[in-house]
Amino acid sequence: MDPHTEPSAVEVIRDPRDFQARLIRARHAGQRVAFVPTMGALHEGHLTLAREGRARVGPEGLVAISIFVNPTQFGPNEDLSKYPRELSRDLVLCASAGVDVVFAPDTAAMYPEGEQTRVTVSSLTAPLCGVFRPGHFEGVTTIVSKLFALSGPCVALFGRKDYQQWRVIERMTRDLLLPVEVVGVPTVREANGLALSSRNRYLSDDERARAAEIPRALGYAVREWESGARDAARIRDEVDTRLRAIATSVDYIEVRDADTLEHYRDESTRAVLAIAVRVGTTRLIDNVVLGEESAPV
Ligand code: PAF
Q1: Of 37, 46, 231, 242, which is the most exposed, with the fewest CB atoms less than 10 Å away?
Q2: 258 CA → ligand 1 middle, Å
Q3: Would you say the CB of residue 38 lies under 6 angstroms from ligand 1?
Q4: Per-residue confidence (pLDDT) for residue 79, from 0 to 100
Q5: How are strands ordered across the β-sheet holding 249-257?
Q6: pLDDT per residue over 11-50, tens digit each?
Q7: Which of 73, 163, 171 for mutating ligand 1's site (highest number of atoms within 8 Å of CB)?
Q8: What residue's CA is closest to ligand 1, atom 8?
Q9: What are the residue numbers of the active site?
């Protein structure tokens, strides 16, 4: 299918080979390429990634976003069917953020009949979300490697809210020698500190108010660390108490080595406090790298 133009004036490409050819042409014309893989339902966090991409490739460069709800990263009991799909609205937002090209393939194009290939990253995917969402990261690394095969050399931008995802994709890109520079962009937050997520729309007013305790609890941990406390277990326990008071259920609240994601042991390593909790039926994740990032609130 030929690229076509939607009312928003953003160039929309549906066919993977057309997308690949478009970016090859851009590079031949001397443009640098920034690429933001998404599943749509765009919000300010995604637009920040696009703007960061623009800043990195300059006004002459090309900024591309992919919008694809990737079925292989959803478990059987997850929200694939109800995941928001709103391409027209997303295209308007892309235009407002100065995106040049939107790649919006259908599932059959990305997973052709008879496909049987998966990309797996081992240790980094084992803890945290890997425990609670079996197969999730394999779905992510499979689709992102396909997307990188299409995009070719580029700078690719991911939100650090999905800290483990960012680190896994970075590892995969290095291991597969892909010609992509992976950049993690700091989390964008609402005024009350809640990390932006396409899933926040599912929160009721009461749940949203409860969820605001998440950035407050992370802020507590940041301030403890800044004041010199290094008892990661004690800080974790306090965050645990605070979050269990507002959460419907807790998947994990853990301090991990920020690079290997192994258990945090001592000050010779960097520390990330990562959490995943459900408020109502909505699963929220967040994190902060202690001693490096400021308190969310
Ligand atoms: O973070 C997301 O939106 C998705 O996991 C990604 C990276 C686009 C892969 O489908």
Answers
A1: 231
A2: 20
A3: yes
A4: 86
A5: 249-257, 271-279, 282-290
A6: 999 999 999 999 999 999 999 999 999 999 999 999 999 9
A7: 73
A8: 38
A9: 46
Beta-carbon contacts of residue 179 (< 8 Å; ≥ 6 apart): 152, 153, 154
Within 10 Å of residue 177's Cβ, how many Cβ atoms? 7
Q: Is the per-residue pLDDT at 64 higher than 60?
A: yes
From the CA of 198, give the closest atom in ligand 1.
3
Q: pLDDT of 179-224, one tens digit each?
A: 999 999 999 999 999 999 999 999 999 999 999 999 999 999 999 9
**65 alpha carbon to ligand 1 midpoint, in Å?**
11
Q: What pLDDT is stored for residue 3 in this prediction?
A: 45
Please report where in the chains the tokens 């992509």 appear, as a residue. 180
Atom of ligand 1 nearest to the CA of 37: 8
Q: How many helices (H) and strands (E) does the chain have?
A: 10, 10
pLDDT at 9 (0 to 100): 83
Q: Could you tell me the distance, in angstroms and rounded to a whole number, from the CA of residue 280 to the centre of ligand 1? A: 23
